[in-house]
Amino acid sequence: MKRIGIISDTHSYWDDKYLYYFEPCDEIWHAGDIGSMEVAERLAAFRPLRAVSGNCDGGDLRLAYPEINRFRCEDVDVLIKHIGGYPGKYDASVRKMLHASPPQLFITGHSHILRVKYDNTLNLLHVNPGAAGLQGWHLDRTVVRMTIDGRKFRDMEVVKLAELWKNE
Predict the structure, then answer these.
(1) CA 5 to CA 154: how far, in whole Å?
(2) CB-based contact 52:80 (threshold 8 Å)
(3) How far is CA 111 from the centre of its chain?
(4) What is the value of pTM for the model shown?
(5) For residues 107 and 73, what is the distance between their CA atoms, to the nearest angstrom?
(6) Which of 11, 106, 109, 115 has the fewest other C-beta atoms within 10 Å?
(7) How far apart are CA 5 and CA 116, in angstroms?
């Protein structure tokens, strides 16, 4: 059983809340647009980090982290890609791979839109944790926590780090 913290689109922004909310996690997975090696290094110093580079990440991050990260966690096939789309509208860069060999868990970033949706066609769980940084048009900064127990997903939580804008 592993507890996972999922984060994306930090865009170089550091918040000590990352460590607070990821304290119970065994690993941290970053779905791209990390923004700086400093953010990646601070996360990696806290917990084992699996990450992908995003479209806004520079050369150092692209050298350190692949565009696609596919691995097993417990008994689950996991695929992380920054620009991946979502069920019914997967990005062309990954669509063929998903249909040919779908993972059980597909994690994306990029849109800054928090989305957790099961794809009944491909039998996979899609998770986009939203955006944890300040840059972008999102209204809330969010991360996701979940447990992978064998082949099962449990205890999924959306953590709202802060509201960026208030409509008064």
Answers:
(1) 13
(2) yes
(3) 11
(4) 0.95
(5) 13
(6) 115
(7) 14
Per residue in 139-159, is it b (16+ CB within 10 Å) or e — as a string? eebbbbbbbbeeeebeeeebb
> Per-residue pLDDT for 168 more than 50?
no
CB 106 within 8 A of CB 84: yes
Q: What's the pLDDT at 138?
A: 85
- H/E element, 111: none
Q: Tell me the CA distances in angstroms from 111 to 16, 90, 158, one per residue in order.
A: 23, 12, 16
Select the more confidently predicted residue: 87 or 135. Answer: 87
Backbone angles phi, psi at 51, to 5 degrees: -150, 165
The DSSP H or E segment spanning 100 is: helix 92-100
The two three-digit tokens of residue 17, written as one number: 């809340």
Q: Which helix (H) or strand (E) holds 21?
A: helix 17-22
Instruction: Extract the tokens encoding 97.
Output: 């791979």
d(CA 163, CA 167): 10
Report the C-alpha gap between 158 and 53 in whole angstroms: 23
CA distances from 64 to 1, 36, 55, 60, 67 (A): 27, 11, 14, 6, 10
Q: Nearest-5° angle of CA 57, CA 58, CA 60?
A: 115
Which backbone phi and psi does 59 adopt, to 5 degrees?
-60, -40
pLDDT higher than 90, residue 166: no
